[in-house]
Amino acid sequence: MHPELEAFAASIADCTGCGLCEGRKQVVFGTGNPHAKIMLVGEGPGANEDKQGEPFVGQAGMLLDKMLIAAGFSRKSNVYIANVVKCRPPQNRDPAAEEISACLDHLREQFRIIRPQIVVCLGRIAAQTLINPNFRVTREHGQFTQKNGVWFMGTYHPAALLRYPANKVDSFADLLQLRDLVEELGLCELDYGG
């Protein structure tokens, strides 16, 4: 891990900034290459993530990894994955506005350390938090917008793809658009090995 990122992770391991701290097993900080130019951001950890301490490790995470590898990306080599909130909301409910607000500075600090050039928001909550409060995944997925020199794109959350498998086609097309932008900008080498 990147020393500055590791120090920051340790500094928030006992965070009590909102009520989510009461039900968590651990803070789920992030995973992947800390020098990656691409950052994927979900909404918050689920039960598996809370147990293992890493984002996207359950069924949705396995699907995400398969789709990423097929598009040339991997958390081991060229992406970093985090969440808007670092603690599991009870029963996997959406994080509340005050919980997001309490945790947003943690994500901003991850951005500052990692300095991604592309951010992919996985699902409505992440996209509404980071791109536009009125973002609608079904209408706006796959569209890139630039903010402060960073490209942002929203796409379907992998858990939603498990519930609505027909959207996998659109979601994978979004990842292929990501690949095209990465190649156009010359940001990193693609990795089809996982």
Describe what this molecule looks like in 3D:
This protein has 194 residues and is of the alpha/beta class. The protein contains eight helices and six strands; from the N terminus they run αββααβαβααββαα. It has a six-stranded mixed sheet, with helices on both faces. β5 (144-147) and β6 form a beta hairpin. It is globular, with a radius of gyration of 15 Å. The two termini are 18 Å apart. The model has no long low-confidence stretch (mean pLDDT 96).
Task: Name some characteristics of this structure.
single chain; 194 residues; alpha/beta; six-stranded mixed sheet; 42% helix
Secondary-structure blueprint:
Layout: H1 3-11, E1 31-32, E2 38-42, H2 47-52, H3 59-71, E3 79-83, H4 97-114, E4 118-122, H5 124-130, H6 137-140, E5 144-147, E6 150-155, H7 158-163, H8 168-185
Parallel strand pairs: 2-3, 2-4, 4-6
Antiparallel strand pairs: 1-3, 5-6
What is the terminal separation in angstroms? 18 Å
Overall SS class: alpha/beta
Cα radius of gyration in angstroms: 15 Å
- Tally of individual helices: 8
Strand portion, in percent?
Answer: 5-15%
Order of helices and strands: HEEHHEHEHHEEHH
| Major sheet details | 6 strands, mixed
- Helicity, as a percent range: 40-55%
Which oligomeric state applies?
single chain
Mean pLDDT metric: 96
